[in-house]
């Protein structure tokens, strides 16, 4: 990879290939957030059995919480399709 991006090795079964372009873009935004904001700090929080609350605003910006649920206060997203 020449653009400095890291190779993703966690998608052993290439499930990303099942996603449409919109969901793939979301996946890439989530991966970038996890690499930049979570990976550098998570071991320290894990060993203390604590949650890094400072990442909550970033998670909220991603809009990924509750996407498969509808109703009051839910973003009414759609679940990923496997077909």
From TrEMBL:
Taxonomy, superkingdom: Bacteria
SUPFAM superfamilies cross-referenced by the UniProt entry: Acyl-CoA dehydrogenase NM domain-like (SSF56645)
Species of the source: Blastococcus brunescens
Name assigned to this protein: Acyl-CoA dehydrogenase family protein
Pfam families assigned: Acyl-CoA_dh_N
Domain Acyl-CoA dehydrogenase/oxidase N-terminal stretches: 21-74
InterPro entries named in the record: ACX4-like, AcylCoA_DH/ox_N, AcylCoA_DH/ox_N_sf, AcylCoA_DH/oxidase_NM_dom_sf
């Amino acid at each position: 990879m020449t653009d400095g991006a890291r190779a993703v090795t966690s998608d052993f079964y290439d499930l990303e290939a099942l996603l449409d372009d919109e969901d793939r873009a979301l996946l890439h935004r989530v991966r970038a957030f996890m690499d930049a904001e979570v990976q550098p700090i998570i071991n320290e929080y894990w060993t203390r059995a604590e949650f890094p609350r400072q990442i909550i605003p970033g998670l909220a910006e991603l809009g990924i919480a509750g996407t498969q649920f509808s109703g009051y206060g839910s973003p009414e997203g759609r679940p990923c399709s496997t077909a």
